[in-house]
Design goal:
It contains no helices and four strands. By secondary structure, it is mainly β. It has one domain: Nuclear Transport Factor 2, Chain: A. The protein has a four-stranded antiparallel β-sheet with strand order 1-2-3-4, with no helix packed on it. A hairpin with a 3-residue loop joins strand 3 and strand 4. The two termini are about 25 Å apart. Has a role in nuclear-cytoplasmic transport of proteins and mRNAs. This is Nuclear transport factor 2. It is found in: Cytoplasm; Nucleus.
């Protein structure tokens, strides 16, 4: 189990572009803030993931990073 009960998130930026020439696929980059439990200072995060279509879209790759100051 994870050591927290609640996480609120706020997306700051989101960029999307096609990623593969012969397949319906998208690469998405997101930055934002996470607020865990009763903390008052949000943590910055970035995430990049690739969606590929195969009878619906699915996450093919996913990279998530907490950006500590």
């Amino acid at each position: 189990a994870l050591p927290f009960q609640r996480v609120a998130h706020k997306v700051t930026t989101m960029d999307v572009q096609p990623s593969l020439p012969n397949v319906n696929a998208l690469i998405i980059a997101v930055t934002g803030q996470l607020l865990v439990d009763e903390e008052t200072k949000p943590q910055q995060y970035s995430q990049m993931f690739q969606l590929v279509e195969d009878n619906g879209y699915f996450v093919y790759n996913d990279i998530f990073r907490l950006n500590y100051a």
